[in-house]
């Protein structure tokens, strides 16, 4: 017969060792859940890639929408938006910009704001207001662009198209990136950024603890690279937007030194299956290039 000293107290564990193991089991479950969550991270869609590249090429982002109550107090104009023979009646503040109108039209038509062109007596610039464009009641504004469905319906490259791209890439590979027309034009137009970190040639360093900034994209927009390793994401940030790219979506990272400025590189981050989806970043400090590739692609890239 068990003595009173052998009977566990109410609320206590029968085996103290089980209590010691409980936190370990809990931690293992949390690690398994974290691994499952990481594996479930969705890759970038073609639409997201198109949107990111469009923003880099045009340097135009979406402005934040004004509070609905404030909008109601502003002077408005009533007009029609025409997209693919469909007419949408719109009432919008006269002193709001075309950029904000694009965000509103995106909700009506499904055309991403960054892929829209607004035509009214010619191409309407994003920074102009409806008042400056002299939009009047009853006016017609034409929208040109591709919807989400249009983009996703684009077929994958055919073997012939891929072969042609490979030939073009092989031809371009003979010429340094910084001497190729598309990149030389960008470098000549914008020059070296004043706030770019000091580059060090023939040297490798770990990534800094803060986001890497001071570089720019093809539109001359300043680029900030933030490596969110815990989320397995690369954040591409500009003044207008921040795109959170799953590392698994990135197919390749290429880079070459800039001629006469070998302490800096041109870097192409390939967001999709073909080289046409490369997001170009200029004036990347040379000492961080290998660390960037390792962070995005993993150490296996070197073998």
Features:
single chain, alpha+beta, four-stranded antiparallel sheet, four-stranded mixed sheet, 11 strands, 8 helices
Low-confidence stretches: 58-67
Give the amount of beta strand, in percent. 15-25%
**Class by SSE composition:** alpha+beta
What helical percentage do the residues reach? 25-40%
Tell me the number of strands.
11
Q: Order of SSEs, N→C?
A: HHHEEHEEHHHEEEEEEEH
In whole angstroms, the N-to-C terminal distance is: 67 Å
Mean pLDDT: 80
Largest β sheet strand count, sense and barrel closure: 4 strands, mixed
Strand order, main sheet: write it out: 2-1-4-3
**What Rg do the Cα atoms give?**
26 Å
What does this structure look like?
There is one protein chain. Helix content is 31%, strand content 23%. The chain has helices at 16-39, 46-58, 68-73, 98-109, 148-152, 159-173, 181-190, 289-297, and strands at 76-83, 86-93, 117-119, 140-144, 212-216, 222-228, 233-237, 242-246, 252-258, 261-270, 278-285. It has a four-stranded mixed β-sheet, covered by helices on one side. The protein has a four-stranded antiparallel β-sheet with strand order 5-6-7-8, with no helix packed on it. The longest helix has 24 residues, at 16-39. The protein starts with 15 loop residues before the first helix and ends in a 6-residue tail after the last helix.
